[in-house]
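tool_call: predict_structure(chain=1)
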Amino acid sequence: MVNNATVRNNNKVVATNRQARYNYFIFDCYEAGIELHGCEVKSLREGRANLRDSFVRFIRGEAYVFNLHISLYSHSQDTALEPTRTRKLLLRKSEIHHLEGKVSQKGFSCVPLRIYFKHGLAKIEIALCQGKKLHDKREALREKVRKRETDRALSAHQRKKTRG
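tool_result:
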């Protein structure tokens, strides 16, 4: 039974950052492991995570995710863990150096897109991205509306064709 999550390609998706795709142009995506405590893993399995306002920083050659909210596990006695604590990301050194170099350039940042389980291990998908301006967001919305209208027109045409 899947609880508050969807299954895509044998990966149980726990949380997605839909706002990131709206606010940023996505260039590269990377898969990273997350350093978690046991009760945090159980909480993730319940689907109790929020990626909104989270971001990735590089400190002394290591990657960390900030503001990733993982709620406390409902049956845990350990209340000492802070839900938005800083968590270390597990990436290859070459990936860290590449991302760190790109993020140091003006306008680039690194944000998490989704958290999921792959073969029983918690993974996070992070993306190298660049912020959108207001006019870019408006254009994306216009394109979305255009696509929706054409899909509706095509489906209406298909329905007419099958009936008649």
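agent: The CA atoms of residues 116 and 122 lie 6 Å apart. Proceeding to next step.
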